[in-house]
Design a protein that fits this description.
By secondary structure, the chain is of the alpha/beta class. It is 34% helix and 23% strand. The protein is built from 11 helices and 13 strands. Strands 6, 7, 8, 11, 12 and 13 form a 6-stranded parallel β-sheet that branches. The N terminus is likely disordered.
């Protein structure tokens, strides 16, 4: 891959997304539901995956199946043709979005780390994902500041993905607003991943834990979290990260039927997994994973020379999958 083209593509993506990284804050969301349609507007052909009403206006959550970008727009701006999820897979079968969904589905039987765990093969660099599970501790702001400080001369804004849970958002409004200011100042380009609303965890075996716990309501975990994201001015992406990276085929099938692509990791640093070229790196930024944060800071230090020479980059999750499945 030509790295100059990667930078050019990154710039164009930032321009395309600059107005849709954050939605307006919707204070009154009603009838939020899964609703698949083909949404056409002039030459634009998008997938509507959600619909909702706010202040007597109907809105859509829209997916660009070629580059994974999402945005919120008025339903009245589009010509809509309702379709079933199975028809989304058929009609857009050649798109990177559907190819990614099918690739993730091929690993549904795994109890841990189902979904896509690697992107941009044969390129020097990583895709950084940071999980914000419920926590009483403050955000590890050093992670984000270190990323900006290290990459500001070659990648600005620096791309990363944040998996955010509802209960974290409710308790950390100031930290969330701080992250949003980093995007506003073009220091970071954040892809927001749904990480469930409650993120339940217990002492039972994995097969009965996290989303596999008895009584789990997926509509709450998925849709209520998306609503809370919108209420905080975040546009949900097409990605989902299982709490604890734990799932089974039944739960994974249901998540994919929401139109969401499960994202795993082949480099959970706190578990001693090493980051290689194209790795989707996982660290927790919620104050509960000191070793993972230290390992990531050390990783940045060891790669300083390569970063300066543009031989070790941070990759946008959306761009990485677009390149892999184009």
């Amino acid at each position: 891959m030509n790295l100059s083209k990667v930078f050019q593509s990154s710039f164009l993506l930032i321009l395309f997304c600059s107005t849709t990284l954050f939605a307006q804050k919707f204070n009154s969301i009603k009838r939020y539901k899964v609703s698949f349609s083909i949404a056409s507007n002039n030459d634009e052909k998008l997938i509507a995956s959600r619909s909702f009403v706010s202040n007597n206006q109907k809105y859509l959550l829209l997916i660009n199946p070629q580059n994974f970008n999402t945005k919120i727009d008025l339903a009245s701006n589009y010509s809509l043709s309702a379709i079933a999820y199975s028809n989304v897979l058929a009609i857009f079968k050649n798109s990177p979005y559907v190819k990614s969904l099918l690739s993730a589905a091929s690993k549904d039987n795994q109890l841990q780390n189902a979904g896509i765990d690697h992107s941009i093969p044969n390129e020097m660099g990583i895709t950084l994902t940071i999980d914000l599970c419920p926590s009483h501790k403050p955000l590890d702001r050093v992670i984000f500041q270190s990323v900006f400080d290290e990459f500001k001369k070659i990648e600005q804004p620096a791309p990363l993905a944040i998996s955010v849970s509802g209960k974290w958002m409710l308790k950390h409004v100031d930290d969330l607003n701080w992250l949003k200011t980093l995007v506003d100042k073009k220091e970071l380009d954040i892809t927001w991943i749904n990480h469930s609303y409650n993120h339940e965890v217990n002492s039972l075996p994995l097969a009965e834990n996290f989303l596999l716990s008895a009584g789990t309501n997926l509509d709450v975990e998925v849709l209520e979290n998306e609503k809370l994201m919108l209420e905080n001015g975040l546009v949900p992406s097409v990605f989902f990260r299982f709490p604890g990276l734990v799932s089974d085929k039944n739960i994974a099938d249901k998540i994919e039927a929401y139109g969401l692509i499960p994202i795993g990791s082949d480099a959970w640093l706190a578990k001693g997994q090493q980051a290689n070229s194209g790795s989707i790196v996982l660290i927790h930024g919620n104050g509960n994973e000191e070793i993972g944060v230290k390992d990531f800071i050390q990783l940045l230090k060891t790669k300083q020379a390569d970063v300066k020479n543009k031989q070790w980059l941070l990759f946008d999750l959306r761009q990485g999958l677009e390149k892999e499945f184009e």
